Queue: 2 jobs
Job 1
Amino acid sequence: MVDYVVFGRGSFNQLEEIIDPQRKDDYPMVFLVDHHFENKGEHLLNRIPAKKNDKIIFADVYHEPKTTYVDSLADQLKDEFGMVSGIIGIGGGSTMDLAKAVSLMMNNPGSSADYQGWDLVKKPGVYKVGIPTLSGTGAEVSRTTVLTGPTRKLGMNSDFTPFNQIVLDPELTKDAPVNQRFYTGMDCYIHCIESLTGTYLNEFSKSYGEKALDLCRYIFLEKDNWDDECDDKLMMASYAGGMSIAYSQVGVAHAVSYGLSYLLGTKHGIGNCIVMNHIEEYYPEGVAEFKRMVDKNNIEIPEGICKGLSEDDFNKMIDVSLGMKPLWENALGNDWEKIMTREKLRELYGRL
Amino acid sequence: MVDYVVFGRGSFNQLEEIIDPQRKDDYPMVFLVDHHFENKGEHLLNRIPAKKNDKIIFADVYHEPKTTYVDSLADQLKDEFGMVSGIIGIGGGSTMDLAKAVSLMMNNPGSSADYQGWDLVKKPGVYKVGIPTLSGTGAEVSRTTVLTGPTRKLGMNSDFTPFNQIVLDPELTKDAPVNQRFYTGMDCYIHCIESLTGTYLNEFSKSYGEKALDLCRYIFLEKDNWDDECDDKLMMASYAGGMSIAYSQVGVAHAVSYGLSYLLGTKHGIGNCIVMNHIEEYYPEGVAEFKRMVDKNNIEIPEGICKGLSEDDFNKMIDVSLGMKPLWENALGNDWEKIMTREKLRELYGRL
């Protein structure tokens, strides 16, 4: 679990008070900030409590985090400072994952690619704080950090991965771009549909998943205009959705969208939406509701993104997707391989 | 936050695997077990993974935990072993609170009464595990431990108070006495009513409180018979209710019931029910729903428990109750003192 959680409008102002007791000797605090804020984030940047040799790094999250990028950030910090007091991630899901991964790599030898998997990380990272500026991924509470490595897209899933502290300030999500906010919110909604209809589930994950789903429905179907209440509730939906991952698993949309992101670099939130738009067969009610959310919020989901790909490309996506065995098993049961054949998946990718 | 949470039927069987890595030198693990299990808990006792010099102590929870009892348990363990590897509480809310408090007192000097209040505890306790066998109090996740001291009933509320690990195994609540299970479940329900209608609340606590309330309604109004699903859901309701305390506050029922427990030793769960039965004025819908739950579950709520008390006794209860300022303020607003006068509270206690 995350050790400390602060939730509240304006709680970002408590950051100095929160991190100062964690400073060690003269080692700096490193603020890893979504590059989106580099030019238009003055209101946020001015409030970062950086002191002395503290460093602000704008994280390139144009692509989802790669193991090579994690390694280079950690190496850069080791070269410059020897060690750091802590890493504070400020941004969306990619920035959260980067901050967690860099923190771990400050104290673990080798490359982050060596730790993609379950419980391979052997030492705690440096002190790490997550401050989301987009809600929906659940990366602020999860025990993983999804990374694209040389051979796979897989997280550093370990007891040492969760943040020591998260600061959930819904004011920070107020100015997120409308489309981005929707796609990221749908990451939460789609996760709930996949886990609640799946075969892996217990009451812990069900309770959290149901709450996240209720909140998403309220925000994206009942509300007519985006307001502070939506920011508050989507931040809690993201938190609850992230917590529900503990004892549940995602399903078809995630499994198919991993193929897209591996081959085409499609970002996670939009990739899930692109797939969700075409999988009525597996989630009839969920997909119908998703389409109502898309309509009500005037969002356009891209179509035809697989046009012109070679069979070789399709095969690569199919390989990546079918490799996500637990996701398919959760969605379709033990006999999933008989249901989701390569032909069937080829046909689905062709329609995206 | 609690560091590690395990949830699942049968997860108690993982206890050995969970605690063994926490053993330090030859210091024992101490299992603090609700005395209820001493004679009729063979099925549970046989599964406690005690080794070598580990010790099982049956906790006297006939009364709610007192600071004197906490101190004597901690002193006894220091005398016998010098130090312990950990304290594992197995029981209801009182046992949870005792385990947390004894763990803290193994590493903090003086009496637990010195630490009743907010953030007075200066050092982490020894490793502590909470394993509830009754659901509803939320003590398994809270950052306090309610103790009756020489001058007040107040918790050791601190960042060091939460458990390092909780094991939530709904199988353990299966054989709880029906009345006890109801009263403890109502602790959760009443907390939700008080916090959700109160003036202190944010979206974090609201989301958790709403989920706990939904679960309580399902269990106590929709279900016709108690079954495994009820045990699962009430354990989650307790967890969610406990989490919701973070940014909310209880109200009238708790404030009045503290007076009863201080003077008469009335236990928390039943005390809340006794009060809730008579406070339609403050929670009209909540009390009506509470009464439907009482009827549907064939529970008898004691009446007339204040009969024959002296005015001196009433004054003591009134003093204790009115001392709970934040509870009254949450329930009745800033002007609560004009609303809840001594006369009004005297009249209410007289009806209980």
Job 2
Amino acid sequence: MPASSLSPREVDEQMALIARGIAELINEEDLRKKLARGKPLNIKVGFDPTAPDLHLGHTVVIQKMRHFQRLGHRVVFLIGDFTATIGDPSGRSDTRPPLTREQVLENAETYKKQVFKILDPQSTVVDFNSRWLGAMTAADVIRLASGYTVARLMERDDFAKRFKNNIPISVHEFLYPLAQAYDSVALGTDVEMGGTDQTFNLLVGRHIQSQYGQEPQCIITLPLLEGLDGIKKMSKSLGNYIGINEPPGQIFGKTMSVSDDLMWRYYELLSDKGMDEINRMKEAVTQGRLHPKTAKEELALELTARYHSPQAAEDARRDFNAVFADGGVPEDAPALVCSQGADSAPLAFLAAAGLTASRGEARRLILQKSLSINGELCLDPLSPLPPGEYIVKLGKKRFLKLEVRH
Amino acid sequence: MPASSLSPREVDEQMALIARGIAELINEEDLRKKLARGKPLNIKVGFDPTAPDLHLGHTVVIQKMRHFQRLGHRVVFLIGDFTATIGDPSGRSDTRPPLTREQVLENAETYKKQVFKILDPQSTVVDFNSRWLGAMTAADVIRLASGYTVARLMERDDFAKRFKNNIPISVHEFLYPLAQAYDSVALGTDVEMGGTDQTFNLLVGRHIQSQYGQEPQCIITLPLLEGLDGIKKMSKSLGNYIGINEPPGQIFGKTMSVSDDLMWRYYELLSDKGMDEINRMKEAVTQGRLHPKTAKEELALELTARYHSPQAAEDARRDFNAVFADGGVPEDAPALVCSQGADSAPLAFLAAAGLTASRGEARRLILQKSLSINGELCLDPLSPLPPGEYIVKLGKKRFLKLEVRH
């Protein structure tokens, strides 16, 4: 056995952290082989340069990149600027105008500011696929395209469905998975990670690397993180997200609003605590030795501290408890259940619950900064609240326990 | 009407020559419109740089290029060297190794030597698609590929069949029709011509030109020329061809061997005579005023003169007639019918017909230069003759009327 290689036990240890919370690994045998060599692996994750405003859903994979960093591997944060500067060339959509070089670099800085709250800046390579794809000639593209068949691309779910239903697929759409695969060739990638919706494209990378004489990369897919509702995937458009740029009180309060089940899911996918510790906490809760609210506070503190600071996290806990825990809410406060939508806008539920005599009074009080929701000042009378449970406070004395349902 | 435009009658005159012998025009209305402007049109025909050894089948389209030249249009003889220098990148075949730049240029010279026997060198542009395709970037290719759909490519007969039968189609094969189409954009092509098997690719050019804001080209397809047998398309591998580099006696003799029906077909597709004159000859033959052999001699003379010289053509006629017409063949010469294959090799039919006592004698006489077939010396005892009728002469006195059948 060469001096640099790892013992099976050392490989086991790495595998335990790597496998934590993942959706799929293709395949374990290959990855063990790569790890056993004892050399730092090249880990690649691609990011869209157009959307650098992250929420916790995005951080699941970044957290996994962090795991690889902790194990001494080399992480490439790859910004897919090549396709972005082309824009959507099919002309069927103008929602994605081409980005300028300046915009790409600016977005990259925004990304860095956010992801370096998780990743170690010293051992993270931020790269751009325009570096090699931009230098490719037509002949290079044809050579790349020769390495994959139409039939295999047609196996991709969305292509198969669209072809069957006569929804046009432009030929260039066939080139994107190949370009992404070529990124792995250019970077000599050992492991590529992505969401479960990326499985097909990641597998193309394995094949294309073989075509170019490289050892195929391993594939790790990460699950989509459930949003605050515990059902749908976390997304901005569903309003069930925790943005990592949100103020400390929001991150803390929203984390406290998740169900106990979802809390353990978030622990597994987002926390830096080891699984041993998490499992001990879980057992303690099951056995009644630990209150679930205390466990949730731990998680809320960890996440708030990560994206702000330990001090900001402590302050957020204090503020939160001032409203929720320290007797701030009278036992006999009215309760209201409403549906997400027009009914879950402050103007609507304040009047509906009888906290104000009219929508006019509600609007006036909101403008006077009298409304707080989960301890955060609210100045917007019209934006509907997403599903969840809220403590609404109007002025010093008027309280409402609000539940917004789907 | 602008001064430069043509009258409907002038357009009619051009259309008559253009439409002669073609398989399909897409479409007449568009072409009339282009012609009516009275400006020289850009005519494009693509040629494979790997196979510059032409036979009459190839000259059908070159003849049509000549027609356009006679009408004052600008003809581009486009050598598709871009794809050829890539070779067959799929790795599934090594029958087509990439050509070097030197080979491409050398082949281009070979082409010129041949096609300038038909085309006017002064008004022929020889171009290479590597000039623009070689300069394309990956982004350019993606932009091009965005202009066409997978579904439309799947309509191409061979793609549809292969996909249905699970025979792999490499993705780069989808890029070839698009590259060919882009040639029309680069050249601002008004009319592209090709064989009937090219119809699909030529139509892609129309679409891609529109995508790039150009007026779509018109498409003219030329029929595949029947070989000497009058049934299958002329091809080297079938042995039913007249190569334009063959000696005068071969071109003359092979032309004389075609059926009367096929003769008129060759007249229409290959002769420089006007259709009026051809139709008058045809009528004269029908009415018995002209012997079909005389008409065939005219054609044989014209084709032989084109690829050699009028003098060489006259010499070939004299030699031919010395054997066939001037009593060279005794009335009572034996006749033999055999099948194409082993039986149609000289060694076989000479012995079978009893012209020699044995295959050994046949071989010896052939080596002594005693065998002529249709007036041409034959030194090869083993190569089977293709289907057709032959006058075989061994020494000064032994004759055989040979018919080789399929």
